[in-house]
Structure prediction request, 479 residues.
Amino acid sequence: MLKYHFDWGTVLSGRYLDWLLSGVVVTLEISALSLALAMFLGVLVAMLRLGPLGFLRRLAQAYLEFFRNTPLLVQIFFWYFGSYKILPQALNDWLATTNFEFAAGVVALGIYTSAFIAEDIRSGVRAIPKEQMEAARSAGFGYLGAMRHVILPQAVRITIPPLVNQFLNLTKNSSLAMTIGVAELTYQARQVESYSFKGLEAFSAAALAYLLISLFIAGAVNLYTRWVLRPAAGR
Amino acid sequence: MIEFHDVHKWFGKLHVLAGVNLRVEPGQVVVVCGPSGSGKSTLIRTVNQLERIDQGRLVVDGQDLASPGLDLNRLRAEVGFVFQQFNLYPHLTALENITLAPIKVRRAPKVQARQEALDLLERVGLADKAGRYPAQLSGGQQQRVAIARALAMRPKIMLFDEPTSALDPEMIGEVLAVMGDLASSGMTMMVVTHEMGFARHLSHRVVFIDQGQILEDAPPEEFFANPRHPRTQQFLRQVLSPLH
Ligand SMILES: Nc1ncnc2c1ncn2[C@@H]1O[C@H](COP(=O)(O)OP(=O)(O)OP(=O)(O)O)[C@@H](O)[C@H]1O
Ligand SMILES: [Mg+2]
Prediction:
């Protein structure tokens, strides 16, 4: 028998509840924006990696190796503490007026995740028989047009399961953004803990919220696959 | 329409095309046959540059394929290619397979592309299959959709690489019938096939290729009645009476 008496009432009411909920909102925001960035960069890097130009292929390869093989936390600190030293002054001035830690978090998470997404997309593309590319090129499509209209739509379907994994990792990884002061869910749970001393409840609630978000993402993708993408007719 | 001038190609050490000279006039149907590995696919694939040539000159529709200003995508849009394995886009319906390139490459209005695609499906006898996915069609039906897809770009030349070799015997006829209609309509065609019936009745010339060289090039009557080269004679004995 547990001796501890859970005190949910304190944590799940009043300002503590408000904090936790605002944390959920920030987690969703940072995850969604990073995801958009990660998908954009991921597709781009995958295309360069598969493309006909040797030097762009090597550049993309270097990008992948670098961002996949360094810790996310280091990358977050790099963008937060280091990037202003290499960015142009005008950009820094503008960033200072914005929510800089949030932006740094989005960039770090987005770039980090894009490296994994690029690899997933690349294996998806490579699974499409080369005859599909030949058929599209014979019809007059250029390389990019063939990719966009023939290869990628097929590759996306087989890439969905690994992509869902990356989405979920991204959401969970977003908790690291608390280290640079982004007031997301883990940050807020920590805050609730230090004010209320109800650490067990605060972090249990946070864990539950992450779980629900993950289940929601998995469910949404599942629906998307079933209803929006039409049956990927077998070959 | 298509001119090969002393064309050579190597795959590593393998001399796949060893000095090919060949002319296909506008409106002509030329059948290419020869033993497996003789270079038939390679030959036909050079015409729309799925394979590059290493030496010699290749002129398609008046354009030298080696000329620096050549717009390859545009050339390919005007040359239809039909593959042995059909290579339909599996994620698109029959109709969408046909309309994709006209809409995205030729920039045809959607309504018009759709109407033309329906007409083409009608022409290949598949008007009722517009909404089917490739996996829901038989091999013969898929190949007919593939022909319609190539025709939708309004090509000046049609290339066929063993279009019936992957088909069950009972489906070969329906595909050959579509190709026969096309031949009679005056399309310029290069057809790699071992269907000697098609060669005999619907082609203007039959070309025999062996080890990357054209050994025989004659109108069908002559090709079948008096093949000159011993290799052609041997080949014909084999394909005409496979059980010999
Ligand atoms: N991409 C390639 N790389 C290396 N060798 C190749 C390549 N494509 C074809 N070959 C070789 O070139 C030769 C000619 O091939 P090709 O496909 O043109 O022959 P084919 O006459 O079409 O034969 P089949 O009747 O079997 O289709 C063969 O020996 C083949 O193995
Ligand atoms: Mg072949």
Observations:
- The pocket of magnesium ion (ligand 2) is lined by residues B 40-41, 161-162 (CB under 6 Å).
- DSSP finds nine helices and ten strands in chain B.
